[in-house]
Amino acid sequence: MTTVTLQVKGMSCQHCVNAIEGALGKLTGVSGAKVDLDSNQVTVSYDETQVRIEKVKETIEEQGYDVV
Amino acid sequence: MTTVTLQVKGMSCQHCVNAIEGALGKLTGVSGAKVDLDSNQVTVSYDETQVRIEKVKETIEEQGYDVV
């Protein structure tokens, strides 16, 4: 299991939190996703044998946010 | 038909726009609702014989925003 914290731009409210945590939560191999609005960070725990970090970043960007 | 522009606090992104416009759109008597994020304003057109402005404000507040 790997845990990575990403810096993400554009997250502004609880709807954004729900959109990102919800989308990441549906990814196979992701066991946890937590958004911190104050620090603009998304912390994701995932199984490297099941999902790649590129897919995680792509999923965040598909929701309309920029991974820095 | 009456059109009122309300000052609303806490709207930050497109999710907020969708939440407010969606909730107001479902109210009987409301024929139009438009959020302007830049000015923090919500403009609502409604039929005074079908819905009161208090109900409009209440609906916005139920979505988690403050009507000033």
In short:
Two copies of one chain form a homodimer. With 68 residues, the first copy, chain A, is of the alpha+beta class.
As a percent range, the share of strand residues of chain A is 25-35%
Derived from helix and strand composition plus strand pairing, the structural class of chain A reads alpha+beta
Range of helix content of chain A: 25-40%
Largest sheet of chain A: 4 strands, antiparallel
Strand order of the largest sheet of chain A: 2-3-1-4
Q: Looking at CATH, which topology of chain A would you report?
A: Alpha-Beta Plaits
Distance between the termini of chain A: 23 Å
Which sequence of SSEs, written as H and E, runs from N to C of chain A? EHEEHE
Using the 3D structure, state the CATH architecture of chain A: 2-Layer Sandwich
| Total number of strands of chain A | 4
Q: What general outline of chain A do the C-alpha atoms trace?
A: globular
Structural notes for this entry:
- Chain A is of the alpha+beta class.
- The first copy, chain A, has a single domain, classed as Alpha-Beta Plaits (2-Layer Sandwich), CATH 3.30.70.
- Helices cover 32% and strands 34% of the residues of chain A.
- Chain A has 2 helices and 4 strands, in the order βαββαβ.
- In chain A, strands 2-3-1-4 form a 4-stranded antiparallel β-sheet, with helices on one face.
- The first copy, chain A, starts with a strand and ends with a strand.
- The model of chain A has no long low-confidence stretch (mean pLDDT 97).
- At the A-B interface, helix 1 of A face helix 1 of B.
